[in-house]
Amino acid sequence: xxxxxxxxxxxxxxxxxxxxxxxxxxxxxxxxxxxxxxxxxxxxxxxxxxxxxxxxxxxxxxxxxxxxxxxxxxxxxxxxxxxxxxxxxxxxxxxxxxxxxxxxxxxxxxxxxxxxxxxxxxxxxxxxxxxxxxxxxxxxxxxxxxxxxxxxxxxxxxxxxxxxxxxxxxxxxxxxxxxxxxxxxxxxxxxxxxxxxxxxxxxxxxxxxxxxxxxxxxxxxxxxxxxxxxxxxxxxxxxxxxxxxxxxxxxxxxxxxxxxxxxxxxxxxxxxxxxxxxxxxxxxxxxxxxxxxxxxxxxxxxxxxxxxxxxxxxxxxxxxxxxxxxxxxxxxxxxxxxxxxxxxxxxxxxxxxxxxxxxxxxxxxxxxxxxxxxxxxxxxxxxxxxxxxxxxxxxxxxxxxxxxxxxxxxxxxxxxxxxxxxxxxxxxxxxxxxxxxxxxxxxxxxxxxxxxxxxxxxxxxxxxxxxxxxxxxxxxxxxxxxxxxxxxxxxxxxxxxxxxxxxxxxxxxxxxxxxxxx
Length: 518
Hints:
Blueprint: E1 12-14, E2 31-35, H1 39-49, E3 54-59, E4 70-74, E5 80-84, E6 90-91, H2 95-102, E7 111-113, E8 119-120, E9 126-127, H3 138-145, H4 152-156, H5 160-167, H6 173-178, H7 183-190, H8 194-206, H9 217-229, E10 237-240, H10 244-257, E11 262-265, E12 269-274, E13 279-283, E14 288-291, E15 293-296, H11 300-308, H12 316-323, E16 331-338, E17 349-352, E18 360-363, H13 369-378, E19 381-387, H14 397-415, E20 424-432, E21 456-458, H15 471-489, E22 497-499, H16 507-517
Parallel strand pairs: 2-3, 2-15, 3-11, 8-17, 15-21
Antiparallel strand pairs: 1-22, 4-5, 6-10, 7-10, 8-9, 12-13, 13-14, 16-19, 16-20, 17-18, 18-19
Helix pairs in contact: 1-15, 2-15, 5-7, 5-16, 7-9
C-alpha cells in the first residue's frame, strides 16, 4: 500500500506562507525562469505555476528529471534501449517528492512497492528489511537482533554516549555536533562491530556517493533519523513501474504544460545579469531572458559556472559558498541486456558490502515495463551494476571505467553464478562525477535557498535546508522552498512542506548521555 499521504502521525507539517491564491489578482503576472529541470527545478516550477506565475524552464539536457532522468540510446546493432543513471528508491517518507509526483498521478499508481531489498556482506550473510515493525526504535532494534552480523553481545558493548546523537537527532543542531567528524570515526566511537558497520552503514553512506571516511558523521546521523529512528513510515520503498521519463516526467510535463509552463530543453544557462525589471538570464544561444525571479536548480558544476560568469551577483561571502561546493567521487552504472534470465529468487534490488567495487545489483525486468518487455521477448534479463564512490585520479578515465566494468562483471558472476554463461546482447554505461559531496564541515558553508539578491533563489540537493531530508527528498524540499521564497516576494501564497519529525524521538537518551560525559 503506497498511500498518498504520511502514515506517521508525528510527521511535521511546515505551514505555507500566506498570500493571494493566484497571480491573476496582481497588476502584472510575475515572470520566473527556472534553470534546471531536475527534481528541484520541477518542484519550483510546479509551485510557481500553480499560483499563476509565468514560468520558463531552461534545461541543458534533452530530457527532464536531472539525475533521475531517462533517455534512449542505441545498441551496437541499432536497437533503441532505455537508459538512465541507475536505480533510485522512492521511500515513503519522501513526502515532498511524492507531493510533486501526485500533481500528475494523484494516487501514485505509477509507483510499485519493492517487497524487500536484502543486504549481502562479504561472507555471504544477508540482512533484510522485510517484516520489520515500522515504529522507532523497534524497527532498528529488530533489524539488529535478527541480523546475522549483529549479535546480542554486540549491543551490550555499544557506547551509549557516543551513540546518543543517532538516537536523538535534531536539525540543524546535529550538524553543530558532528559535522566536523567523519562517519567512519563516529562508528568506531560507538563500537559498532566491523561486519555490521560495513553492512548497515557503509551501504547507506556510499549511496551518498562517498566512502564513510570522507562523509560527514552529521549527514550519516541525519540519514539514520530519516530512515530509521525518526520515521514510522517503514524501511521499504517504491520504484517507478516504467522508465523515469515514461512514468514520472512526461506526465508531469503535461501537467505543467496545462499551466502554460514553457520548456527550453537542450539549452544551457550561462549567466545572470541584474537588470530592469530584475534579471536577465543568459543562455548559450545568446538569449537574455527577462525575469522577475530566477531559480537556479543546477548541479554543483553548473551552479558554480553560472555564478562565476555573473559578476553582477556581487556578494563575496555568498560567492565563496557557492564556488566552494564540491562534488563526490565518480560513480559507474553498467546496464547489461543478457540472453538468459537470472534465477527466479533473485530480488529486484540487492545491496552489497565488502565486495568492491560493487555496491548493488538491480534486476530491472522485475519492475520496469520496458526492461520486462525486452526480457519477455528475448527470454533474457536486464541487469544493472552500480559502483559508487569509485576511485578517481589522474590518467585515462575511459580506461579506468573499462577496468571497473570488468571487475563489476566478475562480481556479478560471483554473486549470481547463472549469469557467468550468459551472452551480453547489449551493454550501456554511465561514468559520472556530478553528485554533491557532504564532507566534513560542509553544512555551515553550504549556500541556502535564499540568497542576498531579492528574486534569486537556489534549489537542489547540494543546497542547505534545515529539515531532516536527504537525496531526492532534499532536492524536492528545496525546490518547493525556492518557489515559496519567490511567491512571498510577490504576495502570493506558498506551499506546505512535510517532513519526518525535526527532533529525535529519544531526546531523553541524549540528555542522559550528555550528563554521563560531564
